Amino acid sequence: MLVLLSCDWLVLLCCDWLVLLCCDMLVLLSCDWLVLLSCDWLVLLCCDWLVLLCCDWLVLLSCNWLVLLSCDWLVLLCCDWLVLLSCNWLVLLSCDWLVLLCCDMLVLLSCDWLVLLSCDWLVLLCCDMLVLLSCNWLVLLCCDWLVLLFYDWLVLLSAIGWFYCPAIGWFYCLAIGWFYCATICWFYCPAIGWFYCAAIGWYYYFTIGWFYCAAIGWFYCAAIGWFYCAAIGWYYYSTIGWFYCAAIG
Length: 249
Description:
Blueprint (H helix, E strand, L loop, with lengths): L1 E4 L3 E5 L3 E6 L2 E6 L2 E6 L2 E6 L2 E6 L2 E6 L2 E6 L2 E6 L2 E6 L2 E6 L2 E6 L2 E6 L2 E6 L2 E6 L2 E6 L2 E6 L3 E5 L2 E5 L4 E4 L4 E4 L4 E4 L4 E4 L4 E4 L4 E4 L4 E4 L4 E4 L4 E4 L4 E4 L4 E4 L4
Antiparallel strand pairs: 1-2, 2-3, 3-4, 4-5, 5-6, 6-7, 7-8, 8-9, 9-10, 10-11, 11-12, 12-13, 13-14, 14-15, 15-16, 16-17, 17-18, 18-19, 19-20, 21-22, 22-23, 23-24, 24-25, 25-26, 26-27, 27-28, 28-29, 29-30, 30-31
């Protein structure tokens, strides 16, 4: 063993480990691990994992997973899924589905269906059917029929193909599958799989799996596995396994 001692540092050297002690830092080094300790951070490095601990965040990194923990959010990243958790929202992202849970709404998105759930409305969108449900109206739309239930009247449409109600702004064309409501700005076309709601900024393109919400800045593309949130600067590319957060760099 070798010992080096000075007024502001200490070195201990042995056959299989090394200790460095300074005024504000400690280093422990061995053949298979490394420890860096300071007044405001800690680093643990082993053969297959890394731990970074600071005053307000924790990072756990391994060959097949990553964990980012802070005072107000948690990120879990594995080979085929991503979890983002905060005090008021939750995001679950996999190669073939996406779940967004916020304080007053829930979004379930897959390659062949979309569900939007809020405290006062529900939207179910599948490859050939659309369901809009609220406290005072219900819409069932399929490739060859339409059902509108509003307050005290019911409309069943399948034969003539055209429907329009200027009072609430409903418009529907069976031939091309267009559906539009001016009151709440719903728009849907099953032929190309477009769905849009201007009131909350939802946009969904079923054919290529695009999903976008302008209100919170979410963007997702199932075809290439892109996920982005402008509000907190998250960026994830599942195809090549890229993950980036602008907030912490």
